[in-house]
């Protein structure tokens, strides 16, 4: 059995999950119809957490090969999940104009990215939160779940709850705050203030929960938490990281009117962010993203 997942990501960048053989560039926007169970020549199969993938003749798997423009928050959070689950992938470029082409619309009627096609299950799915839920349900379902929890358990539902808070709270408010402060053609103080305040509110929820000030029966101060759910880093924690590490671009001023200081104003959230950024898979994903940004800068200079 082979797996060949085409994962298309936003900002003129395509992540290609290579669990199997490397497809040609011409197949990027036209996912393979190769039937499952068809082995590639000169490849060997082995299992990892119930997932079969192939190594080449030299016994190696592909490592991230970044290209294209800077990876945006939604694609990057999917990349963090892929890295933690040890699903190898590469990055290949596509033009931003292509997101509205029939090839992309066939994968996502909204004409946005990321989108994922898995020929093993025959599923095409879009929206980063849905992709994350799919990946952990499909490839993190062994006896030792790395990022997820037993389906139906309290921890499982709490992780889903935090993922939805990221999708409906952090992502939209951070995104709008970032836009109005950095890219909107007009300076709109009311819009800037509104979304900056909402971004701060999201931070206060995270800091209060992690610091034990929220979610305590009868009020008072509870036990500090290292992660959002239980005692391990889950997909819920990882989903917050891409926007959270850009918080300085979304909140300008601190509560005292000076420059915003995340560590001072939200110490528990800051410690949580640094703790997750210290994970090996997360550090590798940040390196890959930095290389993608560097490559884009070099191409722009050459123009």
Automatic annotation (TrEMBL):
Can the keyword Transferase be found in this entry's annotation? yes
Q: Name one GO molecular function term.
A: transferase activity
This protein's record includes keyword Transferase: yes
Pfam families, sorted: GST_C, GST_N_2
For this protein, the record's InterPro entries field holds: Glutathione-S-Trfase_C-like, Glutathione-S-Trfase_C_sf, Glutathione_S-Trfase, Glutathione_S-Trfase_N, GST_C, Thioredoxin-like_sf
Q: Where is this region: Disordered?
A: 30-68
Return the Basic residues bias intervals.
43-55
Q: CDD domains under this entry?
A: GST_N_Ure2p_like
Taking every annotated instance into account, which residue ranges of this chain make up the domain GST C-terminal?
152-301
Q: Where does the GST N-terminal domain start and stop, copy by copy?
A: 62-143
Which keywords does this Swiss-Prot/TrEMBL entry list? Transferase
The Swiss-Prot or TrEMBL record describes its family as follows:
Belongs to the GST superfamily.
Protein name as annotated: Glutathione transferase
Q: Per the UniProt entry, what species is this protein from, by scientific name?
A: Ajellomyces capsulatus (strain G186AR / H82 / ATCC MYA-2454 / RMSCC 2432) (Darling's disease fungus)
């Amino acid at each position: 059995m082979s797996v060949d997942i085409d994962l298309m990501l936003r900002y003129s960048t395509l992540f290609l999950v290579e669990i199997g053989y490397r497809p040609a560039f011409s197949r990027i926007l036209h996912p393979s119809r190769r039937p499952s169970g068809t082995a590639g020549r000169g490849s060997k199969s082995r299992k990892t957490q119930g997932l079969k993938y192939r190594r080449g003749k030299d016994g190696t798997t592909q490592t991230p090969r970044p290209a294209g423009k800077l990876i945006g928050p939604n694609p990057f959070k999917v990349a963090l999940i892929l890295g933690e689950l040890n699903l190898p992938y590469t990055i290949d470029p596509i033009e931003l104009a292509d997101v509205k082409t029939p090839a992309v619309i066939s994968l996502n009627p909204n004409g946005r990215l990321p989108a994922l096609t898995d020929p093993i299950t025959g599923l095409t799915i879009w929206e980063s939160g849905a992709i994350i839920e799919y990946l952990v349900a499909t490839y993190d379902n062994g006896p030792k779940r790395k990022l997820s929890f037993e389906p139906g358990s309290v921890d499982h539902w709490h992780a889903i709850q935090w993922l939805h808070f990221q999708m409906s709270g952090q992502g939209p408010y951070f995104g709008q705050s970032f836009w109005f402060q950095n890219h909107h053609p007009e300076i709109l103080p009311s819009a800037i203030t509104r979304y900056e305040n909402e971004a701060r509110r999201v931070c206060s929820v995270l800091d209060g929960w992690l610091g034990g000030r929220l979610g305590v029966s009868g009020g008072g101060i509870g036990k500090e938490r290292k992660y959002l759910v239980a005692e391990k880093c889950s997909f819920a924690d990882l989903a917050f990281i891409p926007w959270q590490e850009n918080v300085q671009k979304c909140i300008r001023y601190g509560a005292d009117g000076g420059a915003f200081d995340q560590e001072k104003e939200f110490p528990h959230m800051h410690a949580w962010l640094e703790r997750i950024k210290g994970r090996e898979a997360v550090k590798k994903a940040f390196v890959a993203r930095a290389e993608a940004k560097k490559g884009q800068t070099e191409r722009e200079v050459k123009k």
